Amino acid sequence: MTVCDLRHDISLYHNDKMVNKIHSKYVEIGASTIHYLKCGKGDPLVIIHGGGGEASKGWLRILEELSDYFTVYIPDLPGFGDSKTARGDFHLLEFVDFMKAFSQKLGLKRFHLLGHSMGGGIALHYALAYPSHIKKLILLNSMCLGKEIALWVRFLTSAAFYLWEAFPTFCKALGCLIRLPFNRNKSMTSFPSFRVELGNSIANFKGQNVVLLNRLPELAMPTLLVWGANDRLLPAVQAQTAAELIPDCRLHIFEECGHDVHKHKVFEFSRLLQSFLS
Predict the structure, then answer these.
(1) What is the 3-state composition of the chain as percent helix, strand, coil, each rounded to the nearest 5?
(2) Distance set, CA 234 to CA 47, 96, 116, 240 (Å)
(3) Which of 21, 28, 192, 239 lies at 20 to 30 Å from 186 by C-alpha?
(4) Hey, what domains does the chain have and what are their CATH numbers?
(5) pTM (2 d.p.)
(6) What sign for the dihedral angle of Cα 126, 51, 64, 278?
(7) What percentage of the chain exceeds 90 in pLDDT?
């Protein structure tokens, strides 16, 4: 199946060049069927999407730009996009274990690693746990670099939100169970509460739960921090603080850009990656 089979952004990618460059694939990892995109040639680069995204959401243009220079892999994390899992309780550190299993399954021994937002937090944990696996690390508007996070995220992960969310979540879950006998050929995915539970493991009403500033001096690989100056989810000052603590670090802040640099600064961001990774 090629990228033209994907639902997202399909109107932008009907040319043969795009079809030949990006391929949609599946791999079995444990009890999960994992969807991922692969393209290009050269050094392997693994991308971890954020908590509000997936492989084919917002990354296709970046993949096209990078495919002439790197072999790029970007999986849908379990419970996201087209990755099917019977579990509904993945948390941050379990995603680190998943990324290790994913890289091993694909035979990737050493690779560049890029993580966006929540994916940045996963990438940071991975780099600290398995430094010999990572050639260079890119953290893009990453979590785990400071306590502060947008107020609306803190509200969504608070106990008050659970009370408000409980009834509609129960109704959606009940609907899934009712429809299950009529969908015997389809894999069962996690219930709608999955992302709420995941968010609660990452942040609470006071801010981010996991902050790794004290461990940043341990990073043994060259690291690039990329941020949008107008990020309203995670303030750019977190990147500036982190850059001072990482031994071999470059920092690039895009002006007039928010949390999704990879979507709004496609060409500039891809050129920056090419320069850093070459």
Answers:
(1) 40, 20, 35
(2) 19, 21, 11, 12
(3) 21
(4) 3-277 (3.40.50.1820)
(5) 0.81
(6) negative
(7) 59
